[in-house]
Amino acid sequence: MYFEVRLIFLKEMKVTKTSNIGILGSTGSIGRNVLEVINSLNRKGYEIKVKFLTANNNIETLSDQVKLFSPESVYIENPGKAEEFSKKYEFKNLKVLCGQDKLEELIRRDNYDTLLVSVVGFSGLKPTIEAIKSRKKIALANKETLVVAGTLINKLLNEYETVLIPIDSEHSAILQCLTGEDKNTIKRIVLTASGGPFRTKSIEEIGTCTVEDALKHPNWNMGNKITIDSATMMNKGLEVIEAKHLFNIDVSRVHVIIHPQSIIHSFVEFIDGSVKAQLGVPDMKIPIQYALTYPHRIQSDFRRIDFNNLKDLSFEEPDFKKFKCLKLAYEAAEKEGTYPTVLNASNEVAVNLFLNNKITFLEIADIIEEQLEIHTSKENFEIEDIYETDQKIRKNLTEKHR
Ligand code: MN
Asked: What residue ranges do the domains of the chain occupy?
């Protein structure tokens, strides 16, 4: 029996080299990699058409992408930038859209089959839900969606009979390790973490770090929010919750280990003592291609591991005192309800405050801890409770730190 990944129904996956895709957040680090992968697949006989792209502000990159991929529409979140884009670039037959209702319309259209969600943060939730309700296949690079609403997303995927494939490198690794396995034979899932820029620093040293120090990630080149999340290790905390929902496994069986080289992207230990791991150079193009071609593997010319020059692969236990955010994420995951929403919202606000020099690095965890302590959650929560909780936390914290 195949491993039953709740969100991924292998038997129902249509094998097709032709697809129409929409990309949310195409100018970000993942979005740019996605377009490179699409280009590379199309050179290998795939026919992936890009139907629409969305961006917040970066209209220069967006216009380059439009030239290369000729989508039917672009959505630009910032109204000023949308206007500037229309004036500056005169693309024939391109619809330039702006405004939340226009985004929802775009998502509900039936001219595409796959939505790639590579926006950052809570803003990924609503469009993902809309797309599932329109029976689109989801390729998900936005972890916050599963963190706050994994249970509800699972229900919707079943109800609307569609699939969700993870792009996050750790979850892609787990999916690859679990393919062909029986779910009942899993002992535990282990997510690897680079440990970020502060792995070897003391709490005292971290306490006085600058925004610049925190943005120096040793292995991955990513956007600011996820880079700070990596420095606090909240990123791994969010990934633990993401794994819980993707693979339908209790968080007590999802472990984290620091692996500074970021070569092993995660592993699964089975009941017989065997361990399966997925390895690769730290390059998001590999998990992106796997998500786009799943359940198949396709030849690629991406960088390879050079085992002769791989000096060592080392592992360390994470220090939960130093990386308090990781501990808080486990606690929120165990409490369930809207606690993960509180964790996520207070983290998003706190990271922003830190990036704007309003709080210190260690205060990020303090703010999240306090919000989790004062929160109470309903046992049976609906999507409205998630939106309400998210709004409440943002409002409270923004007022407090004005
Ligand atoms: Mn990751």
From this structure: 2-167, 172-283+305-400
Distance 192 CA to ligand 1 centre (A): 9
| 168 Cα to the center of ligand 1, angstroms | 5
- In words, the CATH class of domain 172-283+305-400 is mainly alpha
Give the global pTM.
Answer: 0.94
Q: How far is the CA of 240 from the centre of ligand 1 (A)?
A: 10
364-375 pLDDT per residue, tens: 999 999 999 999
C-alpha of residue 242 to centroid of ligand 1, in Å = 10
Q: How far is the CA of 86 from the centre of ligand 1 (A)?
A: 35
97's CB contacts (< 8 A; 6+ apart) are 73, 74, 75, 76, 82, 103, 105, 106
C-alpha 175 to ligand 1 mean position (Å) = 13
Nearby residues of 282 by Cβ (< 8 Å), 6 or more positions away: 169, 219, 220, 262, 263
User: What 8-state DSSP symbol labels residue 10?
Assistant: G
Domain made up of 2-167: CATH architecture:
3-Layer(aba) Sandwich (3.40)
Residue type at 147 in one-letter notation:
V
Residues paired with 268 in a beta bridge: 189, 276
Distance 101 CA to ligand 1 centre (A): 31
Q: How far is the CA of 368 from the centre of ligand 1 (A)?
A: 21
Token pair in block for residue 42 = 């199309």
Do the domains spanning 2-167 and 172-283+305-400 agree at the CATH topology level? no
Cα 89 to averaged position of ligand 1 atoms, centre (Å): 35
52-107 pLDDT, tens digit per residue, is 999 999 999 999 999 999 999 999 999 999 999 999 999 999 999 999 999 999 99
169 CA to middle of ligand 1, Å? 5
3-state secondary structure of 93: coil
CA-CA distance, 324 to 204, in Å (whole number)? 14
